[in-house]
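Here is one chain, start to finish.
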Amino acid sequence: MLFIGFALVIAIGLALLVSADAGSMVGLTQDQLGQLLPMVAILIFIAGGLFSRRYKFSELFGNLIVWAGIFGVVLVGYTYRDDLTLVASRVFGELMPGIAVVDGERGSATFRGGRDGHFQINATVNGSDIHTIFDTGASAVVLTHDDAQKAGYATETLRYDVSVSTANGTGKAAAVTLDQVEVGGIVRNNVRAFIAEQGALEQSLLGMTFLGTLSRYAVSGNALELVD
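Its structure:
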């Protein structure tokens, strides 16, 4: 009998949720109310399990408190899902410095500095994942010989006739135009770049032919922000 009463209460709640005036009663839109229906269905299922057999009142009350707590945590997590996603991205960014923390509303991507003081940036070049270093001193995006092959270039056919300065000294590079460069959701097409000859560069550089197209880039403490 107790379960029947509980089910009736929930049924009344369902009727309110689907009524046209429910939104004004509880301050929610019809879409938001519709999203609550699966949660109410879950509550009915839980109630069926609780009341399908006899329990001591103390045990029953304890189970209700536990399930109410679980439901509360789920509801809070659902309400703040966007904020929790951003927090998770920031934590992941600390553990994996090359991963961007993307803010879609602001059109920005934030990276954390590595232990060596450099900002590692995971980019996508011509559809291939390339690990780069943020470098305002580089006049262009520069790919290593191996990364250029990953990006689809036949490096043996290129003309390495441009002198470039690298950490290893002066080397030669070939001028190319990258079809597409994507960093943290920021996409640029037809990006001028260089491909370094083999052994001339240890890691690809995200230089000014990409950075110069941004509305802003700034370093604050241990964070680098790129703004589309």
